[in-house]
Design goal:
Length: 317
């Protein structure tokens, strides 16, 4: 049994972590930190946890633990690490973007860095769009077949965090779709670094157009590029790359977001149109794109079965 603490436990990713860790057979949650909800039961914020835990939010942090999750806003994790001397005996999983491009932390995409994750002390959890995109492209890079790629992707409103803004509140987002950060999304930097890890000479643009969707959770990405493989060969290459990875699956039929919401899965579907290979990728942004992947990484870091505590089922409707 390991002891875990969560800093920033009142947000969406913190809530997902609490749901997973409370029911994980090898984890005891030592504290759930939140400056805004101090003293309140965690089920006051994460109301579905009523009856599952008597834990209260606290503004106190201690390091009598084995693992620390950082679920704060971007920029806050690096400040936390500057202000706190975390003992070397405590492992860290950071869910912000602060250390994804840093040599200080292992980049925590299991389908790319599983062996390094097993030996990591400090881990940077990938971004949600970055996860969906990389899983769509890694087999191409692994085989030296990645070319200039074009992508579009749509994400649910939870991807923007718990604090509402002009482009996330219900009245604006409902029955609406909009593009944002065209070709400039922050997750492209970590995506490019990972792809070059497998195909070092890759220097072509990753042309990404992200969209805000009018739903709460999930990501759907479509990527396409020129590819010489026949469709059957491409499908076989993808299935072989992911055959030892328990959460990424190649579907022979068209996919949709409902297949993955409330799971730690990524599902992929390939098509061929003329000389273009088209890859569709779907994940839950809060699970495989954040907290579920963090627990998957935790399992690897502590030698637990990779799927432990993550046998989650999607809703059929």
């Amino acid at each position: 049994m390991i002891r875990a603490g969560i800093v920033g436990a009142a947000g969406y990713t913190g809530g997902e972590l609490l749901r997973l860790l409370i029911h994980h057979p090898q984890v005891d949650v030592s504290f759930a930190h939140s400056r805004s909800q101090v003293g309140l039961p965690i089920h006051n914020v994460h109301t579905d946890l009523l009856g599952d835990s008597e834990l209260n939010f606290t503004d106190q942090i201690h390091f009598d633990i084995d693992l620390l999750f950082l679920c704060m806003g971007h920029g806050a994790s690096s400040e936390f690490m500057k202000e706190n001397q975390v003992p070397g005996t405590v492992k860290i999983i950071d869910l912000s973007h602060d250390f994804r491009m840093s040599n200080e932390a292992v980049y925590g995409l299991p389908e790319l860095n599983r062996d390094e994750i097993k030996n990591a002390r400090f881990l940077a959890n990938p971004g949600c769009f970055a996860t969906a995109i990389q899983l769509a492209l890694l087999p191409l890079a692994y085989n030296g077949m990645l070319r200039e790629v074009h992508l579009s992707g749509m994400t649910g409103s939870t991807g923007a965090g718990v604090q509402p803004s002009a482009s996330t509140h219900f009245s604006w987002r409902d029955s609406n779709v909009s593009a944002y950060k065209v070709f400039t999304h922050q997750h492209m930097e970590e995506t490019g670094k990972s792809l070059q890890q497998l195909q070092p000479w890759f220097d072509k643009p990753i042309n990404f157009v992200p969209y805000r969707g009018n739903f709460t959770r999930g990501i759907f990405v479509t990527a396409y590029q020129h590819c010489e493989w026949p469709l059957e060969e491409a499908i076989q290459v993808y299935k072989e790359y992911y055959e030892d990875h328990p959460f990424t699956w190649v579907s022979d039929v068209a996919i949709d977001v409902k297949q993955v919401v409330n799971t730690n899965k990524c599902v992929l579907h390939l098509e061929k149109h003329g000389s273009y290979l088209v890859i569709h990728s779907a994940i839950d942004n809060l699970l495989k794109g954040a907290s579920g992947q963090a627990v998957q990484n935790m399992n690897l870091m502590f030698g637990f079965p990779e799927k432990l505590g993550l046998n989650l089922k999607p809703s059929a409707f």
